[in-house]
Structure formats: structure tokens, C-alpha cells
Design brief:
- The structure is a single chain.
- The chain is of the alpha+beta class and 143 residues long.
- The chain folds into 2 domains: 47 residues; 75 residues, PH-domain like (Roll).
- Helix content is 40%, strand content 29%.
- Strands 1-2-3-4-5-6 form a 6-stranded antiparallel β-sheet.
- β5 and β6 form a beta hairpin.
- α1 runs antiparallel to α2.
- 15% of the residues are buried.
């Protein structure tokens, strides 16, 4: 379980999510089985299997080593800290996706032309911090 954020700071620590990574590994194995359980030519099956392995491995790796290690939201502003400790600030864009298990949103950094996306699973934050994140994104979406 992750430590709850420090009350003096508005930043929520983002950590790994082993439970979600395990579930995703199982789905990757099912996708791998589906790649071979069809009538496609063998070379196509192998290509699909390699694609499934690559995408599944990358996703599991991202769950164990998240891109953002700290997250804070101030109204329309988002503040992220990456693994190297570098901080980025941007503006939330679009409508966030908020569910009991996952939160996804897009944000635009001043340094980049295109918006970036970030998703956070429930297991990556402490329970109180995940609830606060969901509440802030829902309140922002109602404006």
C-alpha cells in the first residue's frame, strides 16, 4: 500500500500497481493464445503474437515503473513529477475519464504542441488520494 500524501503538500505519490500488472499479464497470455487459435497463416500468427507480447510487456513495465511518480491538480493546472524528479506543469484539456478503478485525462504542457495523456489505476495511489483525484477531476468536468 502506498503512503498517503503529506498534508503540507498537494502532491500525491504515484507508485507501482502489481495487482493490475498481474491482471494485465493474464490478459496478455489470453491474447497470445488467441493469436494462435485461429485459421490465419503461421507467419501472420507469429506477427500477431509478437505484437501482443511487445504491447503487453510494455504495459506491464509501465505499471511497475510509472511515468509519473507524483501528481497534483490545482483547478485547471496539473503538476507532474517524473522518475528523474523533474517537474512538469500543464493545463488539463478535454473531459477526464473517471471510474472506480481507473482515471484517465489529457493535459497540455507548454513545451509540447500536442496534448499528453496520463492514466492512473486505483492501486497506484493510496485510497484517500485516489478518491481526492477522482473528486477533483469530476468537479473540474462539471464546469
Amino acid at each position: 500500500m502506498h503512503a498517503t500524501s503529506d498534508r503540507r503538500s498537494n502532491e500525491w505519490p504515484v507508485g507501482p500497481s502489481p495487482g493490475t500488472a498481474l491482471a494485465l499479464s493474464g490478459l496478455t497470455l489470453l491474447g497470445l493464445a488467441a493469436a494462435f487459435a485461429n485459421g490465419l497463416p503461421l507467419l501472420v500468427q507469429i506477427a500477431i503474437a509478437l505484437l501482443v507480447i511487445g504491447l503487453g510487456s510494455r504495459s506491464v513495465f509501465r505499471l511497475f515503473r510509472p511515468v509519473a511518480t507524483g501528481l497534483a491538480i490545482d483547478g485547471e493546472r496539473i503538476h507532474l513529477r517524473d522518475r528523474s524528479g523533474e517537474r512538469s506543469t500543464g493545463r488539463l484539456v478535454g473531459t477526464p475519464f473517471v471510474s472506480p478503478l481507473y482515471v484517465g485525462f489529457r493535459w497540455r504542457d507548454r513545451k509540447r504542441r500536442l496534448p499528453r495523456a496520463l492514466g492512473v489505476f486505483r492501486g497506484q495511489l493510496s485510497e484517500p488520494d485516489f478518491r481526492r483525484l477522482c473528486a477533483r477531476l469530476r468537479q473540474r468536468g462539471e464546469r
